[in-house]
Amino acid sequence: MGIDGFTNLLMLIIGLSIFLGTLLFIYDKYFGPKQRSKKLKTAKFTDFLKVGFKTEKDYLIGKINGYTVIISYNWRNKNGIESLITMILFDPRINGKHLNSYFLNKWQESIKDDYNYWEYGRLFTDWPYMNGNPNLKSVLKKLDKNTKLISSKGLQKIEYSEWETEIKNYIIKEEKTNANTV
Fold first, then answer.
1. Rounded Cα–Cα distance for residues 12 and 50 (Å)
2. DSSP 3-state of 78
3. Which among 82, 99, 112, 140 is placed 20 to 30 Å from 127, CA to CA?
4. pLDDT tens digits, residue range 152-180?
5. pLDDT tens, residue by residue, 53-107
6. Are 77 and 114 in contact (CB under 8 A)?
């Protein structure tokens, strides 16, 4: 294959990537919320309503050990598999100072499974359906364990609206800081 053939192949790959990426973005942005709302009506999710969770938009929200928990459907996780996702929210500040990536990375290294992810202000858990459908009992058990883990790190509880505001403000601050350093 000559240089022209390689260039054409490269352009084809780039074009397909842009096209497929756009399709996936459109699907997730415009069709995803409807699909997530539809999935929330299945038994897998309605069981959570029986233990105190409430439906909000295209997710469920509730409390476990006083921590705000969000449960939702993900039609395509990082491995391209549908899954149930949970997020336990916590205040991303300790003694008024924002958590830095050092602590998040250190905590991530201490996790013994591939389904929990420490992120700024939340502990995210992915429950891929390929491992069998996650049931209410196993999810609640894991959420109980994870809220106790968060509490043991000294991370405080936070309401969803306050968490959302804090995260947005932090992102804006970080973007300004990064823009000034470039």
1. 51
2. coil
3. 99
4. 988 899 999 999 888 888 777 777 776 66
5. 999 988 999 999 999 999 998 877 777 788 889 999 999 888 777 787 787 888 8
6. no
Please state, in angstroms and rounded to a whole number, the distance separating the CA atoms of residues 94 and 73.
30
Structure tokens at 132: 């069998």
Q: Nearest-CA neighbor of 136 among 35, 76, 68, 51?
A: 51
Structure tokens at 26: 């459109």
- Sequence-distant (6+) residues with CB within 8 A of 129 are 81, 82, 83, 84
- Give me 104's structure tokens: 């998040």
Q: How far apart are CA 138 and CA 88, in angstroms?
A: 16
- Phi, psi for 24 (deg, rounded to 5): -65, -40
User: How wide is the angle at C-alpha 119 spanned by C-alphas 115 and 122, nearest 5°?
Assistant: 90
Query: Cβ(115)–Cβ(127) under 8 Å?
Result: yes
CA angle 77/150/46 to nearest 5° reads 50
DSSP β-ladder status, 122-128 and 116-119? antiparallel
Residue partners of 87: CB distance under 8 A and separation at least 6:
69, 70, 122, 123, 124, 125
Report residue 78 as tokens.
Answer: 């990082």
